[in-house]
User: Which sequence fits this backbone?
């Protein structure tokens, strides 16, 4: 550090992909903890595009998921939100997300943050070899999901313990549908947005 003529340190950008239907404190704590442990300059939240094939699971409109993510992250100067997956259209593949972020952010190292459940599925993703050349992968602990190295490339993935929050978007949606409170599971502004837009009320 400080060496004469040494290349300046690259910017370190965390990438938190998700459906965020809705975003909750489990997502925010994971991003905050990884940002601190990995000395990230910023974490960008990237809501997924609208799945055009709504077979078994219907997802809220992309615009609602995007706005909830903005509301939840607006106060943190280290957090931002990207529309790239929403604006691309079609299903979201993480390779496309990382390729695009790479092009938009020269001289930046990317750190893709993913929960233990999603990390387990990583080897089933498309273009796995390319994924690891685009970003360092960080698997975070999540209550109810074992965090094990699923045989990922040497040095390509770090496993990180984050404060345990047994919150899922599925549970938040179910609670709203039943009329149960979600205060303190998601940021206050997100509770109010869900009420205003009458999301997750069922038929
Ligand atoms: P759903 O129940 O609809 O699948 P979710 O709570 O799993 O929602 P996602 O948007 O699917 O939320 O998750 C985005 C990312 O955040 C994934 O990598 C997921 O593993 C991670 N994540 C979600 N909840 C937590 C949590 N409570 N602790 C740690 N990581 C989490
Ligand atoms: Mg999930």
Assistant:
């Amino acid at each position: 550090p400080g060496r004469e003529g040494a290349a300046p340190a690259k910017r370190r950008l965390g990438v938190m992909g998700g459906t965020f239907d809705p975003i909750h404190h489990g997502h925010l704590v994971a991003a905050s903890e990884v940002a601190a442990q990995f000395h990230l300059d910023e974490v960008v939240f990237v809501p997924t595009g609208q799945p055009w094939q709504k077979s078994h699971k219907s997802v809220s409109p992309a615009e609602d998921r995007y706005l909830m993510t903005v509301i939840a992250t607006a106060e943190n100067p280290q957090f931002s939100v990207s529309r790239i997956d929403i604006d691309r259209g079609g299903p979201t593949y993480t390779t496309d997300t990382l390729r695009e972020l790479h092009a938009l952010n020269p001289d930046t190292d990317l750190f893709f943050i993913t929960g233990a459940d999603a990390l387990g599925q990583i080897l089933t993703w498309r273009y796995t070899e390319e994924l690891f050349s685009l970003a360092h992968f960080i698997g975070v602990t999540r209550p109810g999901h074992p965090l094990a190295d699923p045989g990922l490339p040497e040095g390509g993935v770090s496993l990180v313990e984050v404060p345990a929050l047994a919150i899922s978007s599925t549970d938040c949606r179910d609670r709203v549908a039943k009329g149960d409170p979600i205060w303190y599971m998601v940021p206050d502004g997100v509770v109010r947005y869900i009420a205003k837009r009458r999301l997750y009320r069922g038929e």
